[in-house]
Specification:
single chain; binds the ligand N[C@@H](CCC(=O)N[C@@H](CSC(=S)NCCc1ccccc1)C(=O)NCC(=O)O)C(=O)O; mitochondrion; four-stranded mixed sheet; Glutathione-S-Trfase_C-like; Glutathione_S-Trfase_N; 10 helices; Glutathione S-transferase; transferase; alpha+beta
C-alpha cells in the first residue's frame, strides 16, 4: 500500500480535492502540517521545487504542484478516464477548474472586502461553462467526463463547495451543478470524510476569509 503524506498548511486550500479523492478511493494518508512560523524560517521553502506548498510524498518520491499531484493520484487510482481522449477531456476540465480557483484565491487574499460582491455577481458567467460540460455528458447525471469519477470531479466539487460557503445561492441557477455537488458529496466514503472533524475544522483559506 503506498505511503502518502500531504505537506501543507492547516487549510483546505489546494489540498482538499486530493484529500477527497483519497478518502473516496479508500486510500489512507498522513498530514504533515506546516505552521506559518516554520514556513517563515525558510528551510522547507528552499527544499520545495517552486518554493511553495503543497508537497506530496508517495513513499520516497516527493512532488509539488497541486494539479500534478491530482494527476498522479488519478493515474494511481483509476481516476483519469478510460482512454487518452477521456484523459485529455479530464485535463481540459481540470484546467478550467484551476482558472476559476485562481480567480477565487486572488479575490480571497487580495480583494475580499471590496471585491467579494462583484466576484459573486460575475460567478454565473464562470459556472455556466461547467453546467454545460455536465449537460453534454449523460445529461448531467454522472460526472464531467465519461462514466466514472476523475480527479477533475473532486477538484470541481471542492471548489464549488467553497463557493457555496462564499455565496450559498450561487448554484440556484445551475440545477445540474447543484445536483452534481450533492450526488458526489454523498458517495459513502466521501460523505464520511466530509462529515469528519478533520474536514469540518480545517479553515478553507489561510487568512480566515471564506
Ligand atoms: N501552482 C501551485 C501554487 C502553490 C501555492 O500557491 N502555494 C501557496 C499556498 S496555497 C495558496 S492557495 N496560497 C494562497 C495564499 C496562501 C499563502 C500562504 C498560506 C496559505 C495561503 C504557498 O506555498 N504560499 C507560500 C509561499 O509562496 O511562500 C500549486 O498548485 O500547488
Amino acid at each position: 500500500m503506498p505511503e502518502y503524506t500531504i505537506v501543507y498548511f492547516n487549510v483546505k486550500g489546494r489540498c482538499e480535492a486530493m484529500r477527497m479523492l483519497m478518502a473516496d478511493q479508500g486510500v489512507d494518508w498522513k498530514e504533515e502540517v506546516v505552521t506559518f512560523d516554520t514556513w517563515q524560517q525558510g528551510d522547507l521553502k528552499k527544499e520545495a521545487v517552486f518554493g511553495q506548498l503543497p508537497g506530496f510524498k508517495d513513499g520516497d518520491f516527493t512532488m509539488y504542484q497541486s494539479n500534478a499531484i491530482l494527476r498522479h493520484l488519478g493515474r494511481n487510482h483509476d481516476a483519469y478516464g478510460k482512454n487518452p481522449i477521456e484523459a485529455s477531456r479530464i485535463d481540459m476540465v481540470n484546467d478550467g477548474v484551476e482558472d476559476l480557483r485562481l480567480k477565487y484565491v486572488r479575490m480571497i487574499y487580495q480583494n475580499y472586502e471590496n471585491g467579494k460582491d462583484d466576484y459573486i455577481k460575475a460567478l454565473p458567467a464562470e459556472l455556466c461553462h461547467f453546467e454545460r460540460i455536465l449537460a453534454n455528458n449523460n445529461e448531467g447525471k454522472g460526472f464531467t467526463v465519461g462514466d466514472q469519477i476523475s480527479f477533475a470531479d473532486y477538484n470541481l466539487v471542492d471548489l464549488l463547495r467553497n463557493h457555496l460557503v462564499l455565496a450559498p445561492d450561487c448554484l440556484s441557477g445551475f440545477p445540474l451543478l447543484s445536483a452534481y455537488v450533492s450526488r458526489i458529496s454523498s458517495r459513502p466514503k466521501l460523505e464520511a470524510f466530509l462529515s469528519s472533524d478533520a474536514h469540518k475544522n480545517r479553515p478553507i483559506n489561510g487568512n480566515g476569509k471564506q
